[in-house]
Model the fold of this input.
Amino acid sequence: MAADPRTTTDFDAVIIGAGFAGLGMLRQLREELGMSIQVYETGSGVGGTWYWNRYPGARCDSESYVYCFSFSKELLQDWNWSGKYPEQPEILSYLNHVADRFDLRRNIQFDTRVTSAKFLEDTNRWLIETDQGDCVTARFLITGIGCISTGNIPDIPGLDSFEGDWHHTGSWPHEKVDFVGKRVAVIGTGSSGIQAIPVIAKQAKRLSVFQRTPQYSIPARHETVDRRFIEEDVKPNYDEIWEKARWSRSGFPVEFSQRSALDVTEEERLEIYETHWAKGGFGFLHGTFADIRTDIRANDTVAEFVRSKIREIVDDPGTAEKLVPMDHPYGSKRALIDTNYFETYNRWNVELVDIRRSPIREITPKGIRTGDEEFEFDIIVFATGYDAMTGSFLKMDIRGRNDLPLKEKWSEGPKTYLGLQVSGFPNMFMITGPGSPSVLCNMPVAIEQHIEWISEFIEFLDENGIETAEAGINYESAWVSHVNEVAEPTMFMLANSWYLGANIPGKPRVFMPYAGGLGTYREKCNEIADNGYEGFILGSGSRRRPVATSAREA
Ligand code: NA7
Done:
């Protein structure tokens, strides 16, 4: 086949996305391997998720001192976060600083969405096209498109007729949205909703929260950063901190409790829960008891504790009962931490609408109609989440060997080897793809593990004159089974969550992330590399370089 006449440039790699993943991968491949790289980014600036998520109260739930890159010791020493948890504007400043400091912008084309990527079997190149008319080829296609970046705006009849303004938290306007004096609706009470609700409540004339599923949430205890802690405990000890985070279960440099909630007296148990409630943050999940993640009897104890706290905080008993989660175990949906979320329902201008009991029927020109009532609003905020983990892939037309669309390959749910590659899609790597620990972790740590592993793999391919690497179908199937097996005994299987695709009507119900822990996963990835990249089919392709013999049976 003759080369596509529209093709202008051939790159070593095209990277999609300029968030943590895309920026880190670009730096690594350009600086460490000397590769020619083109990054395409839909936004007008760097930041990825943090470029788009500008809603009031947007903040990361990881503590700031580990929500960053670890590849540069100087960067770690120089950067100073102001909050215990990093707020969206500051994360964006950080990523802009990284882009400037490492001169990354020159390889990034902004305002450009990749629309299709097709593997050309005769040349072993990816042909990539964008909505700006670009048509380029690359040996490697690397996705850094985020796991939670394709917004879910529910298909509620009448949205077009609404006369006020509406916004999704994941594509928030750059201009300030003024809530002062406004009647506001927030639909959704996940991480985004519970961050935005207390902030909006302080400004709005009236705030109505439309809740489908009540949530467990623990106080974040957000505050300004403890300078003494950073200067004395963190900065001099970053090497050990990262080592611990890298091998930990979820990318945090913390110890997980080994205790059972069932082996202590009720008094001791309550004391431990109270201590961690007072400390706040994810320590409540990992520092209390090991079996709250695996044993429903242990989980009942923590669930009941959080329910009692909600009843204690919320003044109106009717509202408190609506807020108490009864239909899923603690930690089975994405664990939440908040700042004054439940307290907000004690405000005179805030009401809770239980749409599980009386669902939203339609959006009218003036507001929202449920089965029971019609409400009038000036602004509707959709905090309704994302088509997580697969949505951003399937928005693009990605085709592998035999012109097979990824959409077809994943019609029963995502199939990957290690969450890094898909069989039939040679030389395509996914940073934090489905089947990797990704969303169950502190993201930058998960991202850097993939960046390093992919980079080492590419180095290995080059050193051995190998043109293509492709996940073997048997290894892929085995990995998919393993991901399911690991998730099966956990609480994650007992809730309708976006981890399972349950929030998107018609999406296959498959647990998408790897729940075995980041440290274990890292060990597996390293073992596979040490075994000559076991499970990958390594091919010489059209360059007629020597064919590697590893994993022929893959
Ligand atoms: P989430 O966690 O998916 O939360 C979305 C919320 O919106 C949740 O309360 C949903 O209820 C609700 N929802 C979703 N669809 C509807 C419809 N159709 N009607 C009413 N309510 C709906 O998204 P977030 O943006 O909060 O957080 C995403 C991730 O970003 C988060 O986990 C962090 O990793 C960062 P449900 O619980 O499904 O009944």
Observations:
- Residues 148, 152, 154, 169, 187-193, 212-213, 334, 355, 383-386, 439, 498, 503 surround NA7 (CB under 6 Å).
